[in-house]
Write a structure and sequence with these properties.
single chain; mainly alpha; Growth Hormone, Chain: A; transmembrane
Length: 420
């Protein structure tokens, strides 16, 4: 494994920890600042929206510097944001710190995906992206539970100081381990923006929003579902979240490996499996053993889509992939926010917590339809080219009237370019 991937994974671990650890600390934060828990929930919402806005903004600002230097600046911003949160005298300042930290999130993963793909051979790019995202998934298994325990024992401010320390470690790793790759020649902000005219890029981002939204429709309301419907004690929820995180780690690694072989078939299988498992969750949520197994499966299938979705964007935006890659990270968070909002509407309408799983089924099914449309358009775009190639090769063979001409026609039909 290139050491550059290790540096990216360390940074991803810190970012993943700060994104999700706040969920377990909301009651403490609310008590300290004298606000309600729903108001404290703005620390989650504000972070997600900051990722959506910050991804394209910070990437656009970074078009004039090398990718390594931009990654270092982003980790510095992440450290500052978490220190602001740790020292916040009032709730508004802590919210501002969360937003500052979130501005680094999308651009780090977006630029990091491009760097990860560049430091390995083309056949291993999805696996390299998965290695970076392993830091994010491991954060859900290790960083978030430990951060919650530290916050409950020593205070939530200590947790954010530790997270800032992780950011410093990530910054040093980027500075020492990532090569100073030059910016591609001729690529400007205008070139980066131009890729959004590509329908395949937009379809890939639509798959990201809907596919990952399907995951978070269930995950957002997992705790009340497990306690009120399944019958788990409050103290068991932490282990269920660890189980979810383990599924994420496994799915991310397997998804990256399989996507390097056959990206779109693997993506469609993961999205179809996710929709099926979410539908089953409406039944298995009433059984402790069944719920535990389903939680792991949701994490695995959900994060199995992450490497192929990110690589799909990189492939379709080839030549100017950095901004598109970062915006796609924002699309993951947009899916999270969309799913949480729709799920909240369903619960507020008087439905059971398990009803949010049908929201997830609908979103994952929508992503599957977009994947099928993308494949169909891609095949349609290739077909005329093959016809033209066959016709031209056949004409060349007829004009030559010899064995070489026949070989040219046969090579073109097979999709092989003859040597000059």
């Amino acid at each position: 494994m290139p050491l550059a991937l290790l540096a990216l994974a360390i940074g991803a671990f810190g970012i993943g920890t700060t994104e999700f650890v706040i969920i377990g600390l909301l009651p403490q934060v609310a008590d300290d600042f004298g606000v309600t828990v729903p108001t404290a929930g703005l620390l989650v919402t504000g972070y997600a929206l900051g990722v959506v806005v910050g991804a394209p903004l910070m990437t656009a600002l970074g078009t004039k510097v090398t990718r390594r230097r931009m990654l270092m600046l982003l980790m510095g911003l992440f450290v500052v944001g978490n220190l602001i949160s740790a020292a916040a005298p009032v709730f508004a300042v802590m919210l501002a710190g969360r937003i500052v930290a979130s501005l680094a999130h999308g651009a780090f993963f977006g630029i990091g995906s491009v760097v990860a793909a560049e430091v390995v051979p083309p056949a291993k790019r999805a696996g390299a992206i998965a290695t970076m995202f392993t830091g994010l998934t491991v954060a859900n298994v290790v960083g978030v539970p430990l951060g919650t325990l530290v916050g409950q024992g020593a205070g939530w401010r200590v947790t954010f100081v530790i997270v800032a320390g992780l950011g410093v470690l990530g910054l040093l790793g980027v500075a020492r381990l990532i090569p100073d790759l030059p910016r591609p020649e001729g690529v400007s902000l205008r070139h980066e923006l131009a890729v959004f005219r590509n329908v395949q890029v937009l379809l890939a981002m639509g798959m990201t929003v809907l596919g990952f939204g399907g995951v978070f429709a269930a995950v957002t309301y997992l705790v009340p579902m497990m306690t009120d419907v399944t019958g788990y004690a409050d103290g068991s929820v932490t282990w269920l979240l660890v189980l979810l995180g383990l599924g994420m780690v496994a799915g991310n690694l397997v998804g990256g490996r399989l996507a390097d072989r056959r990206l779109m078939p693997m993506l469609m299988a993961a999205l179809g499996g996710l929709a099926l498992v979410l539908a089953l969750f409406t039944v298995t949520a009433h059984s402790k053993a069944g719920a535990a197994a389903t939680v792991f499966a949701i994490g695995a299938l959900g994060f199995a889509t992450t490497p192929p979705l990110q690589k799909r964007v990189l492939d379709q935006a080839a030549g100017a992939p950095t901004l598109a890659s970062a915006v796609n990270i924002g699309a993951f968070n947009l899916g999270n926010a969309l799913a949480a909002w729709i799920g909240g509407l369903v619960i507020s309408a008087g439905h059971s917590y398990t009803a949010v799983n049908w929201v997830g089924v609908s979103l994952a099914g929508g992503a599957l339809l977009l994947a099928a449309l993308s494949i169909s358009l891609e095949r349609g775009a290739r077909r005329p080219g093959r016809i033209v190639a066959r016709s031209a090769a056949g004409a060349a063979g007829a004009a030559a009237g010899d064995e070489d001409g026949g070989r040219v026609a046969g090579s073109a039909e097979a999709g092989i370019s003859p040597r000059a």
